Amino acid sequence: MKQLITILLLLFTPLAGSQAKTRIVRLETSAGVIRVELSDDTPKHRDNFLRLVEKGYYDGLLFHRVIKDFMIQGGDPDSRVTLQNDSVVSSPSHQKPLGDGGPGYTLPAEIQLPWLFHVRGALAAAREPDEVNPQQRSSGSQFYIVWGRTWGETSLKQQRAAMAEEGIEMNREMWNAYLQEGGSPHLDGKYTVFGNVISGLKVVKAIQAVATDKDNRPLEDVVILRAIVER
Hints:
Elements: H1 2-12, E1 24-29, E2 32-38, H2 43-54, E3 61-62, E4 65-67, E5 71-74, E6 82-84, E7 87-90, E8 106-107, E9 122-125, E10 138-139, E11 143-146, H3 153-165, H4 172-181, E12 193-199, H5 201-208, E13 223-229
């Protein structure tokens, strides 16, 4: 009988390493390191991001759009700069408009409320506006990291009511997260969140506070020196 129990335990005990590991990407930027965890609930966005990172797509790209108390955005291939020993050798002219570049394809939306939402540190896909993109398809490469604002109960109640008018529910978990951590709930249900920052939030804070021009581009380039898949 003991032998039978041992055999059954072996059959039903998962082998070490048999469970899928959450994928983590390391963004080494000119402002510091940001590590992001990708969600398995958004497999198309997860796999696309990993594929681009592995081919070096993000190396040398700028955070070309930065809005204080809101977010930092990167991933436009038109923003690529030349790097040497972690320094920018040459940079595209600040007269060159950025924000329209991509890999030549878009991704179907994978909006996963209430599990993935725009709390501070959320990693999400940028996209074209609804007028030209009613299906809310995501850019193939451009992403943003949420900083957002802090909320009090009164202001958050008002925001929750505004979301409810659009048919978007803010549940208790979302409420607590926004109240305690901050974020940008007005984006929920409109953009695909596909991961979150697990370390380096202080770097995000520093980047979102840099001086910018009228187009929200940093006056001094903030560069993704390299992106690496950690696991």
